[in-house]
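Q: What would this complex look like in 3D?
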Amino acid sequence: MNVLNKNIDIAEVVKNDIAHHFHPFTDHKSFHAEGGPRVMTQADGIWIWDGNGHKLLDGMSGLWCVNVGYGRKELAEAAYKQMLDLPYYNTFFKTTTVPTTELAAKISSVMPERFKHIFFTNSGSESNDTIVRFVRHYWKLKGKPYRQHFIARTRGYHGSTMVAANLGGFQGMHEQVGTEFPGFHHIKQPHWFDLGGDKTPEEFGLEAAAELEKKILEVGPDNVAAFIGEPIQGAGGVLIPPSTYWPEVQKICRKYGILIISDEVICGFGRTGNWWGFETMGFEPDIVPMAKGLSSGYLPIGAVAFADHLIKDFFELGGEFYHGMTYAGHPVAAAVALKNIEIIERENLVGHTREIGPYFAEALASLRDHPIVGETRSVGLIGAIELSNDKARRGRFASPGRVGTMCRDNCFKNGLIMRACWDTMVLAPPLVITRKEIDELVRLARVALDATYDQVKSELA
Ligand code: PMP
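A: Here is my prediction, written as structure tokens for the whole assembly.
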């Protein structure tokens, strides 16, 4: 790939960016002091190039989204064709478009039978906003208007709109939202490495699930509308719950008549080796928000699938749902998402992920001998490496996030994109990754870990 032949003045782009671009999730003072952005210009498969011709293995699929990998001409062609046929029409006021309807049917076809109805949004955040609106109205329709409260987890991530930030369990976000909205509660995350103490992971899974029942009793069982969780908490640090956790959570929700929302924005579309993370983790949700892998990030689109038992009452009793976005079900995004799902099916990327998952797990496990690696874990093609100053005691370096950031920067320098969630290094490569490429990913990760070790070895216990 001839990346240097693009005639882009990268210094000019950086200058312009610093002058005009207000970035999300960025501390601009240090960002500008460090010289501004790295400019990404081209990508193919699992590889991405910056404007200086530096080649990186994208271990994060962009932001957990480019499931089918970069450089898919078919997706560009689907967008081009749809733009010529009909670039836009809305789905309000009793109209639809062909790809929007086909996509709803296609999503439904890769879900359990009970999910026949799909609401479209533009992002994961909007999907979760939609759900809060739907669920609160639903319980009113059912004659239980007091069921308005949501329970979620600390370090759960559900998006960045006002409601989604409240639903999520990131303290820094709550503080900046200004005032926490009423009706959102958080229980501890099922993260054995940090919180499991002397318990086995299975014992700890039950203990973490029991927190849900405690919270339900505290809020009042009749007041709780729904529990929301990512099957595996992604941005929280790829927290893979022990096998006992989700079945117990489901039991508790059913006992109190509480709806279960499985946030599949990261885990959906094959990431865990099944179409949906709830299949891998063994539970049955009532509502499923999705985004990212739905279009593999080629265009912005999100969606929510609702189970029949909710839809039946909602359609019969609900009147008008006063909610919707101009671009909901956008025909071009829908055409691309449809083609993306066809690629996942045709290339059996879900089966490939399931099949290659154990190889990925073993490759990560080969890093456990490293002096600053406390644990590795993965399911399918989502995984984590815990950085530790004391392997035997699952110890942590001082100032959470400091060493993780060092390691992330060392990865970038050495040709690998691996993200740091505090001191947990996380990975979610495109689902097209091969065994040979996994070997290369792990080789590059070790180079970065070695460089990080050199910087922090005096801090080891
Ligand atoms: N839910 C989960 C589980 C996510 O990981 C994200 C994004 N990282 C969101 C919701 C929000 O999605 P978006 O950024 O598209 O609004």
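A: To summarize the key features: The pocket of 4'-deoxy-4'-aminopyridoxal-5'-phosphate is lined by residues 123-125, 128, 157-159, 230, 234-235, 263, 265-266, 291 (CB under 6 Å). The longest strand covers residues 115-121.
Q: Very helpful, thank you.
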